[in-house]
Every structure is written in C-alpha cells, then in structure tokens.
Amino acid sequence: MSALTPARPGSASSSSASGRGSTTTSASDGRPPRRGLTGLQRAFGRHPIGVLLALPYAVFLAAVFAYPVVLAAWMSVHDWFFSAPGVEVDHPFVGFENYRQVLTDPQVHQAFLNIAVFLVINVPLTVALALVLAVALNRAARGRTFFRVAFYVPYVTASVALVGVWLFLLGGDGVVNSLLGPLAPDPSWLVNSSLAMPSIAGFVAWKQLGFFVLLYLAALQNVSKDLYEAASMDGAGRVRQFFTVTVPGVRTTTALVVILATITGANLFTEPYLLTGGGGPDGASTSPVLLMYQLGIEQGNPDTASALGIVLVVLVGLLVLLNRRLLRSES
Amino acid sequence: MRTSARWGAVAAAVLLTATTAACGGGQGPGNPQGRGPITIWLSNNEQEVAWGEEQVKAWNAAHPDQRVTAQQIPAGKSSEEVIGAAIAAGTTPCLIYNTSPAAVPQFVKQGGLVPLDTMPGGEDYITQRTGQAAEQYRSPDGHFYQLPWKSNPVMVIYNKTLFAKAGLDPEDPQLSTYDDVLAASEKIVSSGAAPSAIWPSPASQFFQSWFDMYPLYAAASGGQQLVVDGEAQVDSQAALDAAGFWRQMYAKDLSPKEAYTGDAFADGKAAMAMVGPWAVSVYGKDVDWGVVPVPTPNGEPADQVHTFSDAKNVSLPVACQDQATAWDFLQFTTSADADRALLTETGQMPMRADVARTYADWFASPDGAPYAPFAQQAARTVEVPNVKNSVEIWQDVRNAWTGSVIFGKEPVDSALRDANGEVQHLLEVP
C-alpha cells in the first residue's frame, strides 16, 4: 500500500473534486430548489457565516489585486496620467492605441526577449538545484540545520544588499574573474550583452533557492521510505532512485515551483535595476517590469505602462497554464 | 457553488472594489491667501538638512502662528517619483526644496504646482534674484512653477598626486581641449598612475547623461540647451563632438564600461571626475585636487565655457492649504542672508544673478576659496530644456548614448540621428 503513497495527493484531489462535482450536480440536475432557504442563504449559500469569515481576505484581494488590475485595464485603453486631486483632467478613450505603441516598441520586444532568456535559464536551474539540494539536505546527518539556514538566508536578505556583494563578485576585477584568470569573459559579466541576463538568472536562482528547497523538503517528507527500499531491493542505485522515486514523488511540488519561479521571474525588476545599472548593457537586461517603471513612474505615462502590464499578465497567465498542462500531462 | 451564490460573490467583489476605489485621493487645491502652520520637505543631504532646520528655527521664532515643520523627503528610488506620487495622492507638503527641473513639466501636467509668478511680487522676485538665467526655468506657458534655488555647476576635478605620477603638471594640467584630455588620459592609464582616466557612470538611467554628455554639449554649443526653439539638438555638431570625444575614451579603455561600486575618484581608481561644488567637502581632506572647466573641441577660454547646472529648485504644490505662508517662507529662505548661509554651510551655489561678486568676501576666505572656481562657473550654466516629455526625452538620449558611445554597438552619428528624430517626435506630439 505504501507504494501508492506518492499517488495519494492526486487520489485525494480526485476524490475531493468528485465530491464537489456531486454537489454541483445535485444543484443543477433539474430538481426543484430545496425549500426552507432564506434570502441570505440563497445569495451566499447554506453557510453565510463562511462568506463572513472569508470577507477580510476578499477585501484584501479586492484592494490589493482586483482594484489595481481593473484600474490598469481601464487606464490601458484611455489617455491617462496621474493628476492632483481636484484637478479636472480629460481622459479620452483611445481604444488599443496604447497597446499598439507597446507592441511596436523595439524596447518592449527586447525586454520580452530578455525575460524569455531569463526564464529559460532560471526556472530549470531553480528546479534542478532546489530538488538536488533538498534531497541532499534530507539525507544529511550532520549540519542539516546549518545548511538549511544558510540556503534560506539569501531569500530573506534584501536584494539591495545582495546585489552589492554580487557586484563585487562579478565585476571586472571581481572574485569570479580573478579565479577564472585568462578565461574571464571580456567584456565582463554584467557589461556583456550575452552574459548579463544569464548572470541575473543565476543570481535570482541562488537568491530564491532557500524558499524552493524548503518546499521540496516538505514534499520529500511525503515520499515513503518503503518505495526507496523497494527500489533498492530491485537493484536501483541512488541516481536511479532519484529519477524513479523522488522526482515522481514530488511532481506536484515541482509544478508549484515551476509556476512560482515563472511568475516571480516574469516580474523581475530589482536585479536589472541595480545589478546592471537600469537594464544595461544597452538594454540587454531590461525586463518588462523595469520598462513599466520607466514608462509609468519616471516618464509619467501610466497608460502605456498599464498596457504593457496587461500584456505581461496575459503572457504570464498563458505560460503558467502551459506549464500546468505540460506537467499534468506528464503525470 | 450555486449560480445565485456566484452572483452574490461577484456583487460583493464589485462593491468592495468600488469602495476601495472611493477611498483614494487626498485634499484638493489649497488657498493662495491662506496662512497657518505648514510642512516643508528638504533633501536627505546632511548639510542641507542642517541649513533647513536653522531657517525653520529662525522663522518659527518670528512667526509663532505660522509654524513651519521641516521633514526630509520620504525615501524612494528617486525624489521625483516620491513627489509625483505625493501630488497624485494630494499628500504633498507646502514647499519642496529638492525639485529637479527635468521633472517639473511632468508635475505641471499633473496640475500639481502653483505658478509662483501669480503670487504677490512673484515674477519680479524670481527674475531679480536669478537674473537672465531665470528664463531657463520658465515653463512653455510663460509661468514659473519653480524657483531657481541652487546649482552645482559641473566641472572636471583632477587628482594632483596621480597627475604628477603620470608625468603631468598638476598645477597646469592642460585639459581645455578634447585632444588635451585624451592625451592626458592615455598618459594616466599607460603610466599606471590610475587604472582609468575618468569614470562616469555607464548606467542607463535617464539622468546619467547630465554628468557625461550634457556638460560637454553645453560647453561645445556655447551654452545652448538640448532643445532650441522647439528643435531637438541631439545630432547637432556640438552633440556629435561631445559623443565623439567620449566614444574615444571608451574605445581606448580610458573610461570603463562597467559601473564602479564605490567612488572611483576617492579610491584612486580614476584620476578625474565630473563634479559640482559638493565635491569640495567630500574630497577636500583626502585628495589633493584641482579643478578646471569641462573641455571643448577647440579649448575655449575658461571664462567662456558653459556647463550643466545640476540645479535643484523649490516648488509649491497646489495641495498646500496655506500658500501665502509658504510663499513668505520661500522668500525668507532665499533671501541674501539665507543664501549666504546655504553657500557657506553646503558649498552649493545659490542661483543669484552674480553669486561670485555677491559673496566675494567668503570666496576670498580660506573656507570659501576652494569654491571660487565653481562660483565663477555658476555664471555660465545650462539647464535641461523645460519641455513636455522631458524625462522620456532624456531616456531616449541615454539609450542612444549607451548603445553607441559606451558600448560601440552602432555608429555614433546614426544613433544620435535616430534619437534626435525620437526626441523631435516627443516635442511635437500633442
């Protein structure tokens, strides 16, 4: 039975889904509505108290997510800028003009290309390193707590402080180039058009590793030791066990890590702003969010910045859906 | 979830969103005749804060019914974005002593600033205090939305010790032409006196051009702004000359393409730097330095060379409720006495018609003497053009500059020509 453990989350999920499905079916299967429900219950379900309990989070969601997204969508189809309270300003509807500007801007194309390079490097790197380190930490007998803390510290440290350290590491006269000697790239990492974005991808993967390692460590606790014993008895070595037991056993967590890494990566801002001096060299590390900041905040064009933001939301949404579908089809 | 419950949830979400939206916004325009306690914002510069607090103390002693409270400008990525956000939220103070001229057109577009020439005696006060240079700060609609307050004229500071080590005469460094500077730079680097000759920031932020390209453009053009009579000058001969000079500096590795994490001049990694008078207090004790005007293609006499002003001005936001008090306090803090205090305590140049002559006694004193060259230069400063889309224009210029001049990815002339077209479009767009 324990061999089925990795499948349990899926089974439970299916069971739960079917449970919800049966409730839905009973409400829409043509039978007349149940009697005795008050108006409140008709509006908010059988347990209005549940709605009440969910209200604070709903308020939070409305204020922090729903309102800005709706406002951004509205701004993106109007000629809009921030004005002082009480100042009458006309914000005419401009249709898709802001989107046309955004989608025909070579800087935007470059930024999306940059972020694609970033994601292609950062997401697999994050998944691979986090999983391998989690497995190693899970097995480590000595210093486990020390290493867990060590991996987690960069995640909770301010990017600004870490960027300073990495500037010293990756600078022309930095530690990395000193170690590489004649093999050091010229121009150096952060001023090299081909290496700037990969350098940032490596930095972000390192910085966020602690969080994803924790996720995998939690997932590894659900992988039964019996499976490893069974695999071992079948003659599987450590590597074989890793690919046939561990990787399938943490698949749902991998899906989560991929989605989170994709979303946070697509929202890259601090690193190109600070590490490469505002998206340099020559725009090679400009990200869409950095461009949004320049357009919306620095240059006073929040309407075009909003259009870019909506495009980004749509693309990231599609990417996440694609990820989910691919990972689900694999499982 | 049943359909009715879904609709209930949707209705609740819409209601919540609408409620949230209704919570935004601050107070509307204030009263031009209003008097009462006010708040002002100062920069985070320690010396300026000390000066500001002294001024506030003196004012409050004489005006107990119109007390002024000074605060440092809230932290942000830049003061411009903090001010812009405060204008939109209606949470601005009554005076902002750190207003960048490049951001003023944007603040005006937001409807956030009071035209100071509409205050009693405003036009005369500004033009008499600042003289002809005040015209650079007049907006296209004819109003002054900023009081020209202080400048930091950009000059070339050099390390005498490193110059001597490179075999250059530290007392007569010969840095007036582009060829002079290139020759001196090659000596500095080839001799090993310093790993680089001069190390301006190669970063892509829009304001970085004010400290490499614009001072040399201002000098080469004989004191013209980047926009003349509505025409962009990004690919003018003066701009091409300045760009050609810097291109050689980068191509010959006399200026690094990489940002320095500290202060390259203070650390001896560069023998020269483009600085304002603030540098006197920063480097004064640790570096044996000299200062000269920025170079020009043909080496103009020092007393004819123009440069970028790097000014910070004072603005009065419309949300200020007691604008009459704010206007009085603004005049109080820009009087001849207050300007003398600003000069002696911060070393920055009050934007007065003839600052060198007005405070000649101080510039002749041991404390003031190091600032005298900057005071002479203050008479010939060029401001960023006061035009709409100002920040966007500077970003376009910077993008072209980093691609062509710093990294050499495309020819300088075609990059500047393309940028000129983009800037012209931004000037003409309705």
TrEMBL record, chain A:
<feature type="transmembrane region" description="Helical">
    <location>
        <begin position="51"/>
        <end position="75"/>
    </location>
</feature>
<protein>
    <submittedName>
        <fullName>Sugar ABC transporter permease</fullName>
    </submittedName>
</protein>
<comment type="similarity">
    <text>Belongs to the binding-protein-dependent transport system permease family.</text>
</comment>
<keyword id="KW-0812">Transmembrane</keyword>
<feature type="region of interest" description="Disordered">
    <location>
        <begin position="1"/>
        <end position="37"/>
    </location>
</feature>
<feature type="transmembrane region" description="Helical">
    <location>
        <begin position="149"/>
        <end position="169"/>
    </location>
</feature>
<keyword id="KW-0813">Transport</keyword>
<feature type="domain" description="ABC transmembrane type-1">
    <location>
        <begin position="112"/>
        <end position="323"/>
    </location>
</feature>
<feature type="transmembrane region" description="Helical">
    <location>
        <begin position="111"/>
        <end position="137"/>
    </location>
</feature>
<dbReference type="InterPro" id="IPR035906">
    <property type="entry name" value="MetI-like_sf"/>
</dbReference>
<feature type="transmembrane region" description="Helical">
    <location>
        <begin position="304"/>
        <end position="322"/>
    </location>
</feature>
<keyword id="KW-0472">Membrane</keyword>
<feature type="transmembrane region" description="Helical">
    <location>
        <begin position="241"/>
        <end position="263"/>
    </location>
</feature>
<dbReference type="Pfam" id="PF00528">
    <property type="entry name" value="BPD_transp_1"/>
</dbReference>
<dbReference type="GO" id="GO:0005886">
    <property type="term" value="C:plasma membrane"/>
</dbReference>
<keyword id="KW-1003">Cell membrane</keyword>
<feature type="compositionally biased region" description="Low complexity">
    <location>
        <begin position="1"/>
        <end position="28"/>
    </location>
</feature>
<keyword id="KW-1133">Transmembrane helix</keyword>
<dbReference type="GO" id="GO:0055085">
    <property type="term" value="P:transmembrane transport"/>
</dbReference>
<dbReference type="InterPro" id="IPR051393">
    <property type="entry name" value="ABC_transporter_permease"/>
</dbReference>
<feature type="transmembrane region" description="Helical">
    <location>
        <begin position="189"/>
        <end position="220"/>
    </location>
</feature>
<dbReference type="InterPro" id="IPR000515">
    <property type="entry name" value="MetI-like"/>
</dbReference>
From TrEMBL, chain B:
<protein>
    <submittedName>
        <fullName>Extracellular solute-binding protein</fullName>
    </submittedName>
</protein>
<dbReference type="GO" id="GO:0015768">
    <property type="term" value="P:maltose transport"/>
</dbReference>
<keyword id="KW-0813">Transport</keyword>
<dbReference type="GO" id="GO:0042956">
    <property type="term" value="P:maltodextrin transmembrane transport"/>
</dbReference>
<dbReference type="InterPro" id="IPR006059">
    <property type="entry name" value="SBP"/>
</dbReference>
<feature type="signal peptide">
    <location>
        <begin position="1"/>
        <end position="24"/>
    </location>
</feature>
<dbReference type="GO" id="GO:0055052">
    <property type="term" value="C:ATP-binding cassette (ABC) transporter complex, substrate-binding subunit-containing"/>
</dbReference>
<comment type="similarity">
    <text>Belongs to the bacterial solute-binding protein 1 family.</text>
</comment>
<keyword id="KW-0732">Signal</keyword>
<dbReference type="GO" id="GO:1901982">
    <property type="term" value="F:maltose binding"/>
</dbReference>
<dbReference type="Pfam" id="PF01547">
    <property type="entry name" value="SBP_bac_1"/>
</dbReference>
